[in-house]
Amino acid sequence: MNSTPERSGDDSTAGQEVLVSLSRCDLADARSVFGVLGSAFDSDRDTDDEPEATSGPRPTVWVTTVDVSEPKAAAHPVTLTAPVTVDAQGGYWAVDRLREHLTGAFAVRVVGTAAGDQEQEAAPGEPLTRPRHPDSSPK
User: How far from chain centre, in Å, is Cα 112?
Assistant: First the structure.
């Protein structure tokens, strides 16, 4: 149970962090999405820490935690080779901010949510698809 208030007045990042998981995508697409996240938000990953290829019978899931309190840069359109599934777990405000930012780079489609106490999870599906161009309308 998460009893942390949204947007508290202290310097804590509680309520401002989003756990982002990527799955069902290839390595190049994972790097593209992590690149957009890394250029916009502080993260638990170093700037040169990119997703790496894995092998084996199990699906690969790449994970990072981002602090969405102060975006560093606007997102620019990015091309993906195929739809990417992004699970975003965090407070309502934080997940909404993450989604708004990703919309600058990708066509984002929310396919479901799972709510808990003070949390929102946008999951699972194919929310990131092709690049979103400034002259295109939301789908």
Answer: 15
Residue 41, φ and ψ in degrees, nearest 5: -130, 150
Residue 75 near residue 108 (C-beta atoms within 8 A)? no
pLDDT digit string, tens, across residues 4-60: 344 444 445 567 999 999 887 888 998 999 989 999 999 887 767 777 777 777 778
In a 13 Å sphere around the CA of 76, the CA atoms on its Cβ side amount to 4
Write out the DSSP string of 29-81: HHHHHHHHHHHHSEESS-TT-------SSSPPEEEEEEE-SS--S-------S
Distance CA 125, CA 102 (A): 15
pTM of the model: 0.70
